[in-house]
Amino acid sequence: MKIYHAIVYLLFAVLANSCENAFDYPIPPNSFEVVETDPPAVVTLEQQDGVWKMFVDGEEFYVKGVAANNFHDKGIQYGANTVRTYGVNDSTRATLDKAYAAGMYVNFGLYIRRETDGFDYNNQTAVDQQFQAMREAVLQFKDHPAILCWSIGNEAEASYTNTKLWTAINDIATMIHEEDPNHPTTTTLASSNVSHIQHIIQMAPEIDILSVNTYAPNLPGVLNNLATAGWQKPYMITEYGPRGTWQMNPEPDRILNWGALVEQTSTEKAQIYLDAYQNHIVANRQQGCIGSFVFLWGYQLHGEVLTWYGMFDKQGNTFAAVDAMQYAWTGSYPTNRAPVIQDRSKILMNGKRAEENITVSKNSTNTATVEASDPDNDPLTYAWRIIKEKSAAADGSLPNGIAGLITDATLPSISFNAPNETGGYRLIIFVIDQNNKKAASAVIPFYVE
């Protein structure tokens, strides 16, 4: 049966894929438009024979999710069933509509301000204003048929000291339960820190599901930390992937003399995603893990190294990590697979690997080569670029390369001139199967003296 509801458009600032951006309050004046939609899904949590399960309209539902900042509705093509958003912005309605049209649900992000970004949880006026903004968002979107659950904050506890944060989160969760009985609540932590989980148990009992963002070295420890903290409800892993740029100290050979970081090839990353899902997510289904969200579905719009995460390039080509996740979610790889750069030994600059602290002189002539293959023997094209370390395009994404340095950037082996300014640079190769919109990538950092 069809129902009618009013859409109240909230004009928040755009949040891309992180917890770094904030929203300003109060909310601008609302506008209204009457549209026709299907009724909301009824999402419940139930413990059966000691195992937590999620149900959508009475059917068991295991979350196979994408933490996305782009290509939100494409996950269904590879076996995903849910998309995670991080906050309300002027494209929220379109994201929900596209997800629903594609057959996907949405873990709806309600962004709350962080102490580390200057928000004061002792300022009751500001807290009340934030609460009201969250309430308006819930009222606006609660009846959308794509909603799966409400995620209150993303890593809001990062570098925090004021435990009133948890009271504010619990107040929002209480309000959601009052206004929307159809969808459960969660809050997303930056790690599985035991004391933080215990604060949620004690101060935010209205949270139904615990969500944890965690990466390669820490993911295996989540289950033990939950048990140590005494968490008795279901949980989700809401971001996972290769070791983060902030976690590199245990791998000193990947930290170069000038501070640049050595990145894995797209093929190496794909295996990390697959191992994480198989060994530490779906393997823990009987221990309360009701699903997960792979990071990053899309391409980076901020970060220390803009090619570190991202399962697509800016043209929409998919890397091997997407193939790996299709296998994880469905048990079958796609018919056509992404190109392969097997490991970091397959890309060399002046005959050296990335870990060898490559330094060159200004304007010097240099060479680079990559060895790539295609599992389906499809023709491959090559696209090299050189960027200055930590540079970005206007939207925060990977910039175009510095013009005029590479003689012919479309070959597997190239000759190029070093930039004429001292500093760190990154030499990037994209190997593309244009017919099937698949890609591989690899990177070598170097320093110009």
TrEMBL record:
> Ranges for the Glycoside hydrolase family 2 catalytic domain?
123-242
Annotated signal sequence range: 1-22
GO MF annotations, alphabetized: hydrolase activity, hydrolyzing O-glycosyl compounds
- Which GO terms fall under biological process for this protein? carbohydrate metabolic process
Q: Where are the transmembrane segments?
A: none
What are the protein's UniProt keywords? Hydrolase, Signal
SUPFAM superfamilies, A to Z: (Trans)glycosidases
Would you tell me the protein name for this molecule? Glycosyl hydrolase family 2
The protein's organism comes out as Sphingobacterium alkalisoli
